[in-house]
Amino acid sequence: MIGSILLCCLCVCFYLLLLVRRWRYERLTSKIPTIPGDLPFIRHAHLLIGDSENLQKFIEDNSNKANKLGGIIKVWIGRRQHFLVTDPDVALTLMNACLNKAYFYEFASSWIGQGIFTAKADTWKAHRKLLNPTFSQHVLVGYLQVFNSRARGLVISLAAEAGRGEFDSFPYLAGYTLETICNTVMGLPEDTSSSIIDQQFVSAADTMLNLLINRVQRVWYHWEWVYGWSGMKREEDRAAKVLKTASYDVLQKRKASKFNSPKDEIKNVGSRQQSFLDLLLEYNSSGLLSDQQVLEEVNTMIVAGYDTVATALHFCLILLGSYPAVQEEVYEE
């Protein structure tokens, strides 16, 4: 009897502690405007439900509101606060102060594990410090030949569609960006990347990214035990298997390439000239990164370079096609 009463008291105290912490947190953010449409319990979660166009409209509408209200606006998803930021100075302050990721970054862990995109702050700091040499301007300029070569190949591919009416350029751009990643970040020769990055990989990557967005929009799938029973989870597992197999093949091919390279060639490559994957393998051989950590960073770089660059190029082409006068100026230049 006394044990039951004590347990109840502990539960009540714990609940009160959570309420106090939440009250203090809400007081700190009380001056930040909240978007309209707040409902009991679920708060703004219902506004996310829908397709990707609905999500885009949600972001656009509330970004415009944020611009009018000081560059930051508050969104509640259940009991969690999120902030939509449009002011660059506010964004800089937040990014320097808040290094730990939101919980929904974990949704991508089945694909990219704990790479620098999803890692906790301590891991992120350590890995980012190790990888900084590969993000320099010097390294980027060294890849201009690859960029030009792949760009010429992209133009040849797109030329086949000329004069045939409307078509979707994204599959061409996706293949281009993935092969470029293999030739630069992963350090693979141009004649080997196409054997790894095939249409099956592109399709699996597209599926995975769509599933991640769909899960974010459907709040009931934020609970791992609910999502684990869904058809989306089974589809995610199939796509993740394809993607992990491809990244593992990239890793093995680069290992074999380095092993078979002439010693003089290896000796002449300084740390500033190394590809991202070469540096990872160097850290792996010295014990700074495990095999699993190397694979997770490979997956992260593929994700970071694939959809972002392909989407930016896609929008660039759409805008050029929408403004023929500008397109002509670009052509003349």
TrEMBL record:
It comes from the Eukaryota. The keyword NAD does not apply. Its cofactor is heme. The keyword S-adenosyl-L-methionine does not apply. InterPro entries: Cyt_P450 (IPR001128), Cyt_P450_E_grp-I (IPR002401), Cyt_P450_sf (IPR036396), Cytochrome_P450_Monoox (IPR050196). It is a peripheral membrane protein. Keywords: Endoplasmic reticulum, Heme, Iron, Membrane, Metal-binding, Microsome, Monooxygenase, Oxidoreductase. May be involved in the metabolism of insect hormones and in the breakdown of synthetic insecticides. This is Cytochrome P450. PANTHER family: CYTOCHROME P450 4C3-RELATED, CYTOCHROME P450 FAMILY 4. Belongs to the cytochrome P450 family. Its main location: endoplasmic reticulum. It is found in: Endoplasmic reticulum membrane; Microsome membrane.
